[in-house]
Specification:
Elements lengths: L9 H11 L3 E2 L1 E6 L5 E6 L1 E7 L2 E7 L12 H9 L1 E5 L6 H7 L9 H5 L3 E2 L8 E2 L4 E12 L5 E12 L4 E2 L4 E2 L1 H4 L2 E3 L6 E3 L11 H5 L13
Antiparallel strand pairs: 1-13, 2-3, 2-6, 4-5, 5-10, 6-9, 7-8, 9-10, 11-12, 13-14
Amino acid sequence: MHFDFETMSHQDCYRLLVNSVVPRPIAFVTSVDHDGTLNAAPFSFFNVMGHDPPVVVVGIERKAGGAAGALKDTAANIRSTHEFVINLVSEEMVEAMSTCAADFSADVDELDKAGLAPLASTKVAPLRIALSPASFECREMMSIGIGDGRTLVVGTVVAMHLQDRFYDESTRRISTPEMRLVGRMHGKGWYARTSDLFFVPRGTVSDATGEPSSDPSPNEPI
């Protein structure tokens, strides 16, 4: 099958993309407006895009049923205050996260509706989610309008919070499998666990040429 995205509807493009680009990590974003009202919403158009500086990107769709060009509360808050927190989602948080995906009005505290406790951040105003295995405090680097009310937010990570039980100070390593993070899959309501893992050694030049490799040992801290 061949699909010409330049001639297809945006909705058809969306269906093909989200049903094939899987799993996608989930950014459970907390933000506040100028009055300090907290908002929490999940987005799976998300990933880390660099470490020097540490950069994340979140794609935010337009507000469902709103006027043309209407921004979702998260995008509007970030444009207004230039701060947000990305909370990663574990298996035990999935149902609460799904509750926060509902289209509540801007004055509703989604975390309260979902029974999730907030914690203070250290460098930004938005609160983080206590149950999240890892949270990233971010400042907006830029926001790019892409289409009718859609926004691509580029943020710099200024601080990270990681639950103590997932970090080994002696090895400086995160126990990633124990975090039991989930990813977004196809269709409505489908997710993937990160517990079914397999290991493949990273390829090196010496694998192909037989020459000595200068690549770091896979056992070195990262």
